[in-house]
Specification:
elongated, alpha+beta, three-stranded antiparallel sheet, 3 helices, 2 domains, Rieske Iron-sulfur Protein
Length: 197
């Protein structure tokens, strides 16, 4: 016994018990806290690649899907739509897609892995509005020289059928192209890069 009448053994027992209890409580708090840093299943699914069937897509048709919470447009371009791409080159701000708005494998006139399919984020590069698909060549409200493309009615930005931005509009860059690849002739996987075929 010590001079004050308290047993040293009892003191060390209480200190050890308190420390052990504190360690258990600390671990009980730290484990859920660390676990909160890992993304939820919903968050992991939101960033996951999206598989899209192209079986029912017809020439001239545009479909919309979501990837990472953003609209992705898939346009099946007709031969006549593809033929307009070189006709508007002089009117475009970045006709050769020199700004990094697409993977390298889509840095071509069609901005595509397969010319007939345009895969593009459906958000205007000005303020993030959603342009409308306007395939109607010579539309009265867009001018007689309009050959089809995408028009943002909010502020008047125009994009051709490859998602390339016209000069003199508020949008500064071409529509972005997400990473993607083809699993086969009728299946597209958005969110995974591929090498040019």
């Amino acid at each position: 016994m010590s001079e004050d009448g308290v047993s040293n053994g009892r003191r060390w027992f209480l200190i050890g018990t308190t420390a052990a209890f504190g360690g258990v409580v600390g671990a009980g708090v730290a484990i859920p806290f660390a676990a909160s840093w890992t993304p939820s299943a919903k968050a992991r699914a939101a960033g996951a690649p999206v598989e899209v069937s192209l079986k029912k897509l017809e020439p001239g048709q545009l479909i919309r899907v979501k990837w990472r919470g953003q609209p992705v447009w898939i346009l099946y371009r007709t031969d006549s739509a593809l033929s307009t791409l070189d006709q508007v080159t002089d009117e475009l701000r970045d006709p050769l897609s020199e700004k990094n708005q697409q993977p390298d494998y889509c840095r071509n006139e069609a901005r595509a892995l397969k010319d007939k399919y345009l895969v593009v984020l459906g958000k205007c590069t000005h303020l993030g509005c959603s342009p409308t698909y306007r395939p109607d060549a010579g539309a009265a409200d867009l001018g007689a020289d309009w050959l089809g493309g995408f028009y943002c009615p909010c502020h008047g930005s125009k994009f051709d059928l490859a998602g390339r931005v016209y000069k003199g509009v508020p949008a500064p860059t071409n529509l972005p192209i997400p990473p993607h690849k083809y699993l086969d002739d009728e299946t597209l996987l958005i969110g995974v890069d591929t090498e040019a075929a």
